[in-house]
Amino acid sequence: MFISHTVSFVKAVMGQVAGPGDIAVDATVGNGIDTLFLSQQVGPEGKVFGFDIQQNALDNARQRLASQGAPDNVTLHLAGHERMAEVLPDEVRCAVGAVMFNFGYLPGGDETVITRPETSCAAIDAALSVMRRGGVASMVLYTGHPGGAEEAEAIEAHCAAIPMDRARVMQCCMTNHPGAQTRVLLVEKR
């Protein structure tokens, strides 16, 4: 089912964006689910860079990649996603085709360690600065945890203010599910 689950929907979209040989970024590594997805999408000729501020997230991702036989194409950084532009190698700047964000907290981890509006909005700007024309950033906004709704509102307002000549922004949500706690933004660089 294409739209039965937010994350499945995002992967269906990003599967059309990230292909063999591309450069991709998992801006919020978490447990490595999107890292693995991007690694498989770009294949051995591609490159994936992952960012997280928690060592256990990076460890979880490494374990997932190894257990799934992922290509050796991932570089993980113990750094906030807002530092993406300064940490990525010069040769990949303005060449990134896909960036994936899942805002919130590390599932199974400390739920008080959350993404925050100020660093998340800075990370979106950093992503746009390293993306190629036609590259897409996906953002899953979780609102069901403390601070989540406020962060989602800040990110939505930030993205709504991006000039049309810089990027196109699309918002998706389950409008017939009033209890839905996730929303999606897709940002395509122009």
Description:
- This protein has helices at 6-17, 33-42, 55-67, 84-87, 117-130, 148-160, and strands at residues 23-26, 47-52, 74-78, 96-102, 131-142, 167-173, 182-189.
- The chain has 190 residues and is α/β, with parallel strands linked by helices.
- The protein has one domain: Vaccinia Virus protein VP39 (Rossmann fold), CATH 3.40.50.150.
- Strands 3-2-1-4-5-7-6 form a 7-stranded mixed beta sheet, with helices on both faces.
- Helix 2 (33-42) links the parallel strand 1 (23-26) and strand 2.
- Helix 5 (117-130) runs parallel beside helix 6.
- The longest helix has 14 residues, at 117-130.
- The two termini are 30 Å apart.
- The model has no long low-confidence stretch (mean pLDDT 93).
Overview in brief:
The chain has about 190 residues and is of the alpha/beta class. The protein is about 35% helix and about 25% strand.
Tag the structure with descriptive keywords.
190 residues, Rossmann fold, 6 helices, 7 strands, 35% helix, globular
